[in-house]
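Dear H.,

Thanks for agreeing to be a second pair of eyes. The structure we're designing against is below in token form, covering all 363 positions.
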């Protein structure tokens, strides 16, 4: 009996709430002369204020289930809205604004049921959907076409060749950095340094490679500027042909490689090819200069790595001897010697000495 009474009370509260909302909504005072959009914004503000009144008046009294309110509100709202729909539209809006409202809701183009149309109107009052109906201007995305077709004029042929050359350089850029610059020696020496210290993964490989790349750009900057001024820039200005530009741009790199290549390594490839000895550096082709430079760089990097190992090897031997004398044969010597090796490397400013010697070692 108690539950039935409580249920009836809740049902009565739901009816009162729905009647209050509908009656209050359809007793709005006529608007003053204003635009169509301002009237909709005013209705939206009114709906928000009435919602606050409803919450303050009914919700604190008893728990209001959603199903009671929704069923009652839907029934009362349909009756009141159907009776007062035409009257209120004529009262609050002009006929032109009423037609504009139907156009905005696509009533002429879409056969929207009455319930969906009502939901659209109340969704507009609650969330302000009309400002979002403005369509954004279409964004034009530029198209990129890298296809190569048969050229009709010499100018088109030059453009096609430029595209091919740029794509080829982008593909071969990592290999060119490895074989024609100082990157190889720097990367190998830094790897030897980390192994000699025994720090395993510290510094990380990414840090060592990045440091080698930065130093490579620093060392090769004069060579790159010379290649740009002699070969690339005149070719872009259409002052020289492609063959001349390639020869002039590769000449600074070839001179750099020959200055840092041993004659013994260079003579090895001439002997393999059974070619006569060159008279000048201009007579040395790139097919011989590049492999001779790579072998020479490997030999130089291994020599520097051996010299790096010597002081740290002495520390390992001293620590091992001390541990043996103390009878601590089960303790790994590397664990004890690592802090001392790092300390010695920091005290002598090892990075300053090593990087300075490496950079100054290139001619």
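And this is the sequence the design step returned. I haven't edited it by hand at all.
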């Amino acid at each position: 009996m108690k539950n039935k009474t409580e249920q009836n009370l809740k049902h009565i509260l739901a009816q009162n709430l729905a009647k209050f909302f509908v009656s209050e909504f359809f007793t709005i005072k006529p608007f003053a002369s204003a635009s169509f959009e301002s009237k909709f914004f005013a209705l939206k503000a009114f709906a928000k204020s009435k919602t606050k009144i409803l919450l303050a008046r009914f919700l604190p009294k008893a728990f209001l289930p959603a199903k009671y309110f929704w069923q009652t509100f839907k029934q009362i709202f349909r009756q009141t809205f159907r009776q007062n729909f035409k009257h209120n539209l004529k009262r609050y809006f002009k006929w032109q604004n009423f037609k504009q409202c139907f156009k905005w809701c696509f009533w002429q183009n879409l056969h929207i049921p009455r319930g969906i149309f009502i939901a659209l109107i109340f969704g507009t009052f609650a969330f302000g959907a009309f400002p979002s109906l403005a369509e954004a201007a279409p964004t034009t995305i530029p198209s990129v076409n890298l296809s190569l077709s048969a050229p009709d004029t010499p100018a088109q042929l030059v453009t096609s060749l430029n595209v091919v050359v740029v794509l080829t350089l982008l593909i071969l850029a990592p290999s060119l950095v490895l074989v024609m610059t100082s990157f190889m020696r720097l990367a190998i020496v830094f790897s030897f340094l980390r192994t000699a210290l025994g720090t395993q993964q510290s510094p990380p490989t990414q840090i060592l490679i990045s440091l080698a790349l930065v130093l490579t750009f620093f060392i090769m900057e004069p060579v790159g500027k010379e290649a740009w001024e002699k070969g690339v820039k005149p070719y872009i200005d259409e002052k020289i042909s492609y063959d001349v530009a390639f020869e002039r741009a590769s000449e600074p790199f070839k001179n750099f490689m020959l200055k840092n290549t041993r004659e013994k390594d260079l003579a090895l490839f001439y002997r393999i090819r059974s070619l006569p000895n060159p008279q000048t550096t201009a007579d040395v082709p790139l097919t011989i200069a590049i492999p001779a430079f790579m072998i020479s760089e490997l030999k130089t990097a291994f020599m520097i790595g051996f010299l790096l190992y010597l002081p740290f090897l002495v520390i390992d031997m001293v620590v091992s001897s001390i541990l043996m004398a103390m009878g601590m044969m089960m303790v790994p010597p590397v664990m004890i010697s690592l802090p001392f090796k790092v300390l010695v490397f920091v005290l002598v400013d090892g990075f300053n000495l090593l990087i300075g010697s490496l950079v100054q070692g290139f001619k």
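Two observations from my side: The radius of gyration is 43 Å. Residues 24-34, 58-67, 104-114, 125-137 have pLDDT under 50 and may be disordered.

Warmly,
E.
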